[in-house]
Structure formats: C-alpha cells, structure tokens
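User: Reviewer 2 asked us to show a designed sequence for the structure in our supplementary figure. I'm pasting the structure tokens here. Could you produce the per-position amino acids so we can include them in the response letter?
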C-alpha cells in the first residue's frame, strides 16, 4: 500500500470516528434525559422524536464539515508526497520511492517465502537521441516510455519507477521466473510498437529498450542492493549483446 493511499485511508477512518463520536454523544445525552426523568411528562414521546431529529440534523451538518476539513488537511500532504515520491517529468514513481520500498517489500514477502521479480530498463542510445532531436524531444520520449512501461504491468501491486536519466525499474511482487520473462517480452514489444523515430538507433531506426531481469524467492538476509546489482549486470549484458533484448537470471 502506497503512502498516499495510507493517508487517504487514515482520513476516511478519522472522519468516520469523528461522526460516530458525535452520534454516540448525542445518544448518551438523550439517555441521560430519559433516565433522569427530565422529560416533560405529557410530551415525552414528542421530546424523544425532537431529540432524534436534532441528532440527525446535527450529523447531516457535521459530517460534511468534517469531510471538508479532512480534505483541506490532506491536500497539502498529498501535494508534498507527490513531490517526494513521484518523478516531476514522467509522473511515475521516482528512485526515492523505489529505494524506500524495495527493502521493506523484501522483508514483507520473505515472511511467506514469496517471489520477487525486478527488471531494470534502459532506453537504447538515448544520448544519441537527445543529440539528434534535442532535449525537448528527449523529455517527450521519456514520458512516452514511462507511460508505456507503466501500462505494461497490469497488477495493482506492480509498479514502475524512474531510476536514472534514461533508466527505469519494474518491480513485480509475487512474480516468479515465468512472470519476469512474460513482462520483459511484453515491455520490449510495447516499446517497439510505439515506433518512436530514432535514426541513430542502429537497430530498427526506432527507439528500443534493453532489459536486465532477475527473480527469486525473497529472504530476510537479502538486501535491495543484491537485486539492483544483479539486474544492472544483466542489463549491461543485454547492451553488449546488441541492445533491444532482455537477459534473465534467477537470483
């Protein structure tokens, strides 16, 4: 669960508890009047009805106010989180979010011996792309690649983050070797199909990517660096073997 979702969930719980507290307080006051014989003897039923009506009206007024306050409080927090955990150019998660979540994800999944797959993706010949088409086109290319990579992972628990200038990481919890192979092949295909012109690519004259992929059972003794170092070396091998491909090894 992302930090933003946790905060929104906390706001919902807080709003519910505040409304529930108002309701309980009103009921207790009503019971106090009844038990203390403070009700008018002839109009007791009418008094109870009136008190219940007051409670309903009070809740109807207080709940929207509580929601507005919660929204106003959460808005700057969410804005701050956007700057902290999201890449300003592409809109996907940034390296900070990835670094903060990888180790905790390993620890969490190791309780059940779950699998974790990690892919490191690099845009092929991206320096040449910038030199040929300019940095504005380069930024636009990064946005397209980031969007398509995020689109290529379908499960809610998967996420993509920008790792460097031209590198991305794809995190696939509960995905074994077969899952890593499937996603790597899919991402290669998705980027090829975009057919972003790149006359200096040296392969297809379109923008392509290279991938290093690894998967294995998680364990408490593992660190995030083990995964990162592994996929980084595999990415280098993909580039050495001609780019526009992926290289996989079990962790």
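Assistant: Here is a per-position design you can include in the supplement:
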């Amino acid at each position: 669960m992302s930090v933003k979702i946790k905060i929104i969930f906390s706001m919902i719980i807080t709003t519910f508890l505040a409304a529930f507290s108002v309701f309980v307080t009103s009921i207790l006051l009503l019971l106090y009047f009844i038990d203390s014989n403070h009700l008018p003897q002839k109009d007791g039923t009418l008094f109870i009805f009136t008190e219940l009506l007051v409670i309903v009206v009070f809740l109807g007024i207080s709940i929207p106010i509580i929601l507005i306050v919660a929204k106003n409080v959460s808005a700057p927090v969410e804005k701050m989180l956007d700057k902290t955990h999201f890449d300003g150019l592409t809109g996907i998660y940034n390296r900070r979010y990835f670094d903060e979540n990888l180790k905790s994800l390993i620890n969490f999944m190791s309780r059940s011996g779950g699998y974790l797959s990690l892919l490191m993706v690099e845009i092929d010949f991206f320096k040449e792309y910038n030199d040929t088409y300019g940095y504005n086109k380069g930024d636009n290319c990064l946005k397209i690649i980031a969007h398509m990579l995020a689109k290529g992972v379908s499960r809610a628990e998967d996420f993509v983050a920008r790792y460097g200038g031209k590198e991305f990481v794809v995190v696939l919890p509960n995905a074994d070797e077969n899952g890593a192979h499937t996603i790597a092949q899919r991402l290669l295909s998705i980027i090829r199909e975009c057919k972003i012109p790149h006359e200096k690519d040296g392969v297809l004259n379109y923008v392509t990517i290279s991938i290093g992929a690894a998967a294995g059972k998680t364990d408490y003794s593992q660190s995030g660096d083990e995964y990162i170092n592994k996929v980084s070396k595999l990415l280098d091998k993909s580039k050495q073997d001609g780019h526009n491909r992926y290289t996989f090894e079990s962790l």
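For the response letter, you might also mention the following. Residues 3-85 form one domain. The mean pLDDT is 83.
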